[in-house]
Amino acid sequence: MDLYCPRRGCGEPIENDSLHDAVEDGLYPNYRAAAAAFRSEGCTAIGYVHSKGNDNDMRTLAMDAMYDLLGDDMDGAASMMDDLEYLGLLD
Is the dihedral of CA 60, 63, 68, 74 positive or negative? Predict the structure, then answer.
């Protein structure tokens, strides 16, 4: 399932496994540190480049809200985003 960059104007989809890959590559000591960096810095924390999107992108706003609600539960945030996409609420 995908996580989305929380930076306004980006919303780049990132596979949740990319956070595990960042730990394996030695960028972070553990998954929790990688997740915290991703929530605060966005996709650049794991080596991606921010895309130029719309500042009012619904995916970005929803993902930011999921991080606020669920904190460290990245799997839960990805699952909720998947549900919102399935329901057509992010288009």
Answer: negative
- Give the global pTM: 0.80
> Using an 8 Å Cβ cutoff, are 7 and 67 in contact?
no
Give me Rg for the CA atoms of the chain. Answer: 12
Residue-wise pLDDT for 26-56, tens only, equals: 999 999 999 999 988 888 998 888 777 665 5
Element at 89 (helix H, strand E): none
CA–CA separation, 54 and 85 (whole Å): 18
Residue given tokens 């540190």 in the structure block? 33
d(CA 68, CA 86): 21
